[in-house]
Design brief:
This protein is an alpha+beta fold. Helix content is 29%, strand content 33%. The protein contains 12 helices and 28 strands. The strands form 5 sheets. Strands 1, 3, 4, 10, 11, 14, 15, 17, 18, 24, 27 and 28 form a 12-stranded antiparallel beta sheet that branches. Strands 5, 8, 9, 19, 20, 21, 22, 23, 25 and 26 form a 10-stranded antiparallel beta sheet that branches. A hairpin with a 4-residue loop joins strand 10 and strand 11. The N and C termini lie far apart (45 Å).
Length: 465
């Protein structure tokens, strides 16, 4: 496990990773070949490295019926490289930070950990058979470095890299993945229904049961085609450049699952060597159009009392969450109330940092911070319990976390927002927002539709292909 990986330079462009991830071999070649693709294409430093894995050699899962759902992370903790070198494997990418396990934590994992988290109310929604969390391990990865316009193959040994080359050759010869959709058949939770949920939630805020609560609205569409998740991922990627894009596939018990995320929010980065913990919560949104003045919009967003209050509450919550696993006195707000521009909107972002206490484990860090506070509310446990009562569908992987566990046992995870989940012939998508005492129902409904534009544009593009 401590061996230095085999590295080869590949004569390719970074954008080739996205092209390979959008291809699909013929139905019989091989039918169960899953891929993961993590990339950032917004030009930010956060999206510098892209990772493509083909055909995992091992998959670990957490299921709803597991008696000890967090035992997986104890196992991964015991398997981490404790003596891994901190030197760079590639320029800007330390060997210790190389992804070892790539996967996702579903938001619903929280409801399998009611005792550990302290949740008191029973869950309301039945969960389907999809796992609560899964992580793939690949014997080799394609790594794209946007800063140096370089592509590398990194594997356990030369033979692993050779097998990955063969898989890339097969994707090069393959046709494009295909998603068959009809945008007019997309079902959206009616505005009136979501409005009533918002009104009930605001009643909870007025009664002091929560100070902020995040509510989501659901979109659902039938979908067909060949490896449709890959086609949806490609279309959503074109519609929304972000630092934390993801496509993750899983075949489990004969069921095919694809998760497509276009997230701009870092949930957690944990560097095991230095102990640095970092989270960058997003709260506060304003629409952006080509004709608007970005500087004026940014000033308006910062000055909005509702958005300011919403953001400040979540920053305090994330400070508290990190504090549960941090050295005393190490938690600090490194940057606050920054406005970041994206394709259709501006977001208000802060950076909270801490140093993990000595002996902290993966289980400790996840129990202290998961699910992300920006998509639950405050007080956190009360918000989670009331979300279960107010929303009409289980969230699945939406509002969970996506990313990797590195060779040293550190974490790099995004918040699974702007996320589509494809199970069989059905696609689900949620969009929501944080509610505080100053929230306006009409404005909150409009915000869900703004956040669903990436899906709307992707489905429209797929329908015309």
């Amino acid at each position: 496990m401590n061996a230095v990986p085999h590295v080869e330079r590949l004569d390719a462009q970074v954008e080739d990773l996205a092209r390979w991830a959008s291809r699909a071999p013929s139905e019989g070649e091989p039918a169960r070949q899953a891929i993961v693709f993590l990339d950032g294409n917004d030009g930010s430093a956060a999206g510098r490295f892209s990772f493509l894995g083909v055909r995992p050699i091992e998959t670990r899962l957490v299921r709803d019926e597991d008696e000890q759902p967090l035992a997986l992370f104890d196992t991964l903790e015991s398997e981490r490289d404790r003596e891994v070198s901190e030197r760079d494997l590639l320029p800007g990418l330390p060997l210790a930070s190389l992804p070892r396990w790539i996967g996702a934590l579903g938001y619903d994992l929280a409801w399998a950990c009611t005792k550990e988290l302290g949740l008191r109310r029973p869950r309301r929604h039945p969960r389907d058979e999809r796992p609560l969390a899964f992580f793939h391990r690949f014997e080799a990865l394609v790594i794209g470095d946007r800063e140096h316009s370089a592509v590398w193959l990194v594997g356990d040994d030369a033979s692993a890299v050779a097998r990955l080359r063969a898989d890339l050759d097969a994707l090069e010869r393959a046709g494009a993945a295909r998603a068959e959709v009809t945008p007019s058949r997309t079902w959206v939770e009616p505005r009136g229904v979501h409005a009533r949920s918002i009104e009930h939630a605001l009643g909870l805020v007025k009664d002091g049961l929560v100070y902020q609560i995040n509510l989501a609205r659901r979109w659902s569409s039938p979908i067909g085609g060949h490896r449709p998740g890959r086609a949806v991922a490609d279309a959503m990627r074109r519609a929304s450049p972000v630092p934390y894009g993801a496509l993750l596939e899983l075949v489990d018990q004969g069921r095919e699952l694809a998760i497509v995320s276009r997230s701009m929010e870092r949930f957690l980065r944990w560097d095991r060597a230095s102990g640095l913990l970092e989270t960058r919560p997003i709260k506060g949104t304003i629409a952006r159009t080509p004709s608007t003045d970005d500087a004026a919009l940014a000033a308006s967003l910062r000055a909005d009392p509702k958005e300011h209050a919403e953001h400040a509450m979540i920053v305090d919550l994330m400070r508290n969450d990190l504090g549960r696993v941090a050295e005393v006195g190490s938690v600090e707000v490194h940057r606050s109330f920054e406005v970041e521009p994206y394709a259709h909107l501006h977001h208000l972002v802060s950076t909270v940092r801490a140093r993990s206490r000595e002996g902290a484990t993966l289980r400790d860090v996840l129990l202290a911070t998961f699910p992300p506070g920006s998509v639950t509310g405050t007080p956190k446990l009360s918000a989670i319990e009331h979300i279960e009562g107010l929303e009409r569908h289980a969230r699945g992987f939406y509002c969970g976390a996506i990313g990797w566990i590195d060779r040293s046992g550190g974490l790099s995870l995004s918040v699974a927002i702007r996320t589509a989940q494809i199970v069989g012939a059905s696609l689900d998508y949620f969009a929501g927002g944080g509610l505080v005492i100053a929230s306006d129902v009409t404005r909150e409904i409009a915000e869900t539709e703004l956040k669903a534009r990436v899906l709307d544009e992707a489905l429209a593009a797929l329908a015309t292909r």
